[in-house]
Request: fold
Amino acid sequence: MNESQRIGALEAMLFANAEPVETARLADALRLSAEECEALLARLQTRYDETESGLALLRFEEGRWQMTTRPYYGEMVKRILDTRRNAPLSPAALEVLAVIAYNQPVSRSFIEQVRGVDSSSTVTKLLEKGLIEEAGRLDLPGKPVAFQVTDTFLRVFGLGSLNDLPPLHEEEPSEPTQSEME
Reply:
């Protein structure tokens, strides 16, 4: 198998998987080392970027990869898909997602404390949509369930990791130095 065929095989495997796939698993299927597989994935990612393809290759933390459509083409993709099942997120859902994404893992009571309102139904809807998941229990009285965002959340919002979230606060302007004042 030459390099083009290996890249084609990676495309086929990533296309067939709805969830992110570990580099080691892809490498094993191609009978390559993880390093060789990473290099091929990087080439595929670059090809998609350089050709302004409708597809993008996302690299998640822990060496997982997923083929997605580019957010730019989202409106056109939505037109062809049955979007009746995927109602847009309400402002309350977006608030809950933001609280979880920036503070995870968090309990339901923490979310409600930040928002100032009951968030039970919103949390339940986000769990059903797969945007958040249970992340164990917190070491607090009553051992409340902790929540965190999922890879689906990252994919829906076009993020590779939580480090890609915009900063919460703009950096404070620093005091001008003596040379700047002159």
About this structure: The two ends are 66 Å apart (CA to CA). The chain has two domains: 3-73, 91-164. Strands lie at 21-22, 55-60, 64-69, 106-107, 132-137, 145-149.
